Every structure is written in C-alpha cells, then in structure tokens.
Amino acid sequence: MSHLSLVALVVKEYDPAIDFFVRILGFELVEDVPSLTNDGRPKRWVVVRPPGAATGILIARADGEEQERIVGNQFAGRVGFFLHVDDFASTYERMGAAGVAFVRPPRAETYGQVAVFLDIAGNKWDLLGPAPKA
User: What is the dihedral of CA 120, 127, 49, 24, to 10 degrees?
Assistant: First the structure.
C-alpha cells in the first residue's frame, strides 16, 4: 500500500459543498464528472483536496433516508477530519471572515495550535497549526 486515496463525505447537495471546500477552504476541485449509481440513476463523481495533497475527499450526495440521516454526523459528534496549515492565525482569521463556524476557539496544545470548526454538512474538523513561537 502506498497511500490513502479518498475519503467519502456525505452531503445534502454537491454545489454548496464544492463552494465550501474550494472557495472557503481553498481546496482544489480535482474531478466533477457525471456518473451513475449502482442501479443506474445519475449522480456526480466529485473530488476535492488541499493543494499538493495525495488524499482527497469524495463529495457524495446523500442517496436515500439512511444516508440523509448521517449528513453532518458521520463521526457521531467527534472530530472526523484534521486539516493541517502552515499559517494558523491567518487561516483561522480568513475562515472566520468567510463565515466558517468555529465551535471551539483556538488553543495551544503540545502538538501545536488547534481550533474546531464545522464543514458545510456540520461535521467537526480540527484546524491544526504549528505551535506559536515563543
């Protein structure tokens, strides 16, 4: 095995999720192509990822009641994604100005700075940066 290629994130609709990841978080839109469900209904294959990253997120529109129930709660209320950035302070400020909901303010930990935010679907993410310089 060489790397983890994709993780799936179930959302209500494709376009608002693409807007959130590309415009707000600064991810790249890698793929957005028509596809079909296993039973032949139309869907899209949408992949975003941070610039230069190997692992991407497959944005999957909820298909049916069971999937709709987990939108925003794929990790049972826990943080499910961890976004590392080089410039924590400016990224935090930029995301806040763009309307990203932070549910826990920045704090310093032994491993660096961290703040918890919600994605477009309501899942929790850690925004992680290096420890502040003394």
Answer: 50
